[in-house]
Design goal:
mainly beta, 6-stranded antiparallel β-sheet, 8-stranded antiparallel β-sheet, globular, Immunoglobulin-like, 2 domains, 25 strands
Length: about 400
């Protein structure tokens, strides 16, 4: 079985197992490096009894979202590795048996910097129109292989559920590799499936990928990760990875990723329920310490084209009493101006929250006059990253996103 990789020199690495207790005592993340995107559209928090339906189609691509965040917001690097996988691997193979990507944040990935995630309480149904999988495959046995793709529910813990909502099984003939004519698992292609599956009871979903082949055969999948600068210990070919996914609720306070993998050597899915995960022992200490890399599989390269039908209130569409503008400049550092319009004089409050939804500051502006107003926000003491500013006036609450740069 071919064991060299195209994108990384991981065949020589030995992974160990880290418990959540070890992670929580040795890792210290800035608040702006954790959490999920929040709604950034202008939406009153209360609606009338009249509603219309709106359907939007967009691509959810966690890998591209985190890569864009790394490049445009926190200045970190982003890398990708190619991993081998086979459901028939044994414990001694110390490799991956399957992988699952959880879509728990429905972020419009390709307009992410001006958009956000869909608020779950407004979603009526989700149709998974298409799935896009970056895969490589190699057949050396001369025996047919099987590729299984499943759409699963998501458990209340935001881990992959066990209920199969949709499934596709592909028999890959021995002489018809996915990557034919190269027959090289290190040369991935883009595989497209069309589930056209609609769910009204599940506001989140997961996609599980399983490859059932002879042990001489290999399936390869790509996973992206956000990394810090510098190398891992004395190694010059492994970059230190200890950042988190910005677009997932999966995991714990110190570890967030969108992708779960089952490791044959540990006979369990990782990260597990307590946050235990593999890590690279950068300092060679024999145990997990601060500075070790541990989240190299943040984003398995599975993306989804989805159609979301959401409830939009008629009162929202007809509301012209308050208008909130995008702050300027944005991104910024130090101070920014936020303009808003009032149809009539009203009490106004501004609330600033971070990417986790935690309130950073609240400003009571008192009675603001009718017409256009401007609020100058000072962010001295704020860490760089994504924040949200919310104007509250009576029953209306409008939110937009802003970015604090260095």
């Amino acid at each position: 079985m071919k064991k060299t990789t195209l994108l990384a020199v991981f065949s020589c690495l030995v992974f160990s197992f880290a418990t959540q207790a070890q992670q929580s005592t040795s890792q210290n993340f800035a608040p702006n490096l954790q959490g999920k995107m929040h709604p950034v559209t202008q939406m009153p928090t209360k609606h009338s009894a009249l509603h219309t339906n709106s359907t939007d189609q967009f691509v959810v691509d966690m890998d591209s979202s985190d890569a864009a965040y790394a490049a445009n917001v926190n200045g970190s690097q982003y890398g990708r590795y190619l991993w081998d996988m086979n459901m028939n691997y044994a414990v001694s193979d110390s490799s991956l048996k399957y992988m699952t990507v959880v879509f728990d944040s429905l972020v419009d990935s390709y307009s992410m910097m001006s958009g956000g995630t869909y608020p779950n309480n407004l979603i009526q149904s989700i149709t998974i129109d298409s799935l896009y999988l970056s895969l490589g495959q190699e057949n050396n046995s001369g025996i047919n292989d099987t590729l299984v793709v499943q759409i699963l529910n998501v458990a209340t813990s935001d881990q992959p559920g066990t209920t199969v909502l949709w499934a596709d099984t592909t028999i890959i003939l021995a002489n018809a590799s996915l990557t034919a004519p190269t027959n090289d698992w290190g040369s991935p292609i883009l595989l497209t499936l069309a589930p056209s599956f609609t769910t009204t009871s599940n506001k989140k979903f997961a996609v599980k990928l399983m490859y059932l082949g002879n042990k001489q055969d290999t399936c390869g999948f790509i996973a992206g990760y956000s990394k810090t600068s510098g190398n891992c210990g004395t190694s010059t070919n492994v970059s230190l990875c200890d950042n988190q996914s910005q677009f997932s609720q999966v995991g714990t306070a110190t570890y967030r990723a969108n992708t779960y993998t089952y490791w044959s050597a540990y006979s369990q899915q990782l990260p597990n329920g307590t946050g235990g995960n593999i890590y690279y022992d950068c300092d060679g200490s024999g145990g997990f310490t601060s500075g070790d890399g541990y989240s190299y599989i943040q984003n398995g390269l599975i993306s989804a084209m989805i159609s979301v039908t959401s409830t939009v209130s008629v009162s929202e569409n007809m509301n012209n009493t308050v208008k909130l503008y995008q702050n300027t400049p944005n991104p910024f550092n130090g101070q920014t101006s936020i303009a808003y319009d009032l149809k009539s004089a009203a009490q106004v409050n501004f609330v600033i929250t971070d990417i986790l939804g935690r309130t950073i500051s609240t400003t009571d502006l008192g009675m603001a006059h009718a017409g256009k107003n401007t609020f100058t926000l000072s962010t001295d003491g704020f860490s760089k990253g994504v924040y949200f500013y919310t104007l509250k006036s009576g029953e209306i609450s409008l939110t937009k996103k802003m970015i604090i740069s260095e």
